[in-house]
Amino acid sequence: MSTGPLLYYITDRTAFPGDDRTRRHRLLDKIAEATLAGVDYIQLREKDLSTRDLESLAHEALQIIREHSRLATDHWPLTTALLINSRTDIALATEANGVHLPANDVSPQEVRATWKKCGAGALAREISPLNPQISVSCHHPEEVTRAAANGATLALFAPVFEKKDATPAGLEALHQACRAKIPVFALGGITLQNAESCLQAGAAGIAAIRLFQENDIAQVVQALCTR
User: Fold this and answer.
1) Dihedral pair phi/psi, residue 203, rounded to 5°
2) What is the pTM of this model?
3) Collapsing DSSP states into helix, strand and coil, what is residue 98?
4) Are 14 and 6 in contact (CB under 8 A)?
5) Read out DSSP for 129-194?
6) Contacts of 13 (CB under 8 A, 6+ apart)
7) Whose CA is closest to 194, among 145, 155, 159, 154?
8) Where are the alpha helices (DSSP H) in the chain?
9) What is the pLDDT of residues 34-47, one digit of tens each?
10) In this predicted structure, what is the pLDDT of residue 159?
11) Averaged over 128-156, what is the pLDDT?
């Protein structure tokens, strides 16, 4: 993608209108759109799905990423990494690039131990040999420091601006969190209007559901990467 902030799309197919089949197709279309636009990370966050359905969806998503990355970049390795929310087993089984760990989940160290023991697939090895990408949800600056010490690859710091039933952390807390030795992504109420303030606070990138899912992703990427 163009020089600029790292971008992280978090999926939520339940936000699309229609029946389950329609929502699934809409989600896969969005994953293709995000890949073509050069989004760096896609987190498959479909927590309501059964193991079988989530694994099937992950396989489809990875196939789409593989095909559309080549169209978007015309080179190897892939530029968009797929992370599976919470499920290291499915990430390994589908050859995803890593996992996202919600708060109070297993530690990044445990994920790495499992990944090393079980081995990653060929696609994952092309991107990072036996080294999973691990993002961690953090709500306080000290949690980001701890995640870095425990082997996380990056942190999602939220909510910066808004989240239902949660007090916004604010830009100063984000700034403190960004002192950690891993990339920190701003999450929570991020818009094109306030994204620049997050980057000025030290965020390496922007993470969002609605910003990507409810807009033309190519236009969002262009707006964020040309500021």
Assistant:
1) -65, 140
2) 0.92
3) strand
4) no
5) TT--EEEEEESSHHHHHHHHHTT-SEEEE--SS-BTTB---HHHHHHHHTTSSS-EEE-SS--TTT
6) 23, 24, 26, 27, 46
7) 159
8) 20-37, 51-73, 88-94, 108-118, 122-127, 141-149, 170-177, 195-200, 210-213, 217-225
9) 999 999 999 999 99
10) 96
11) 92
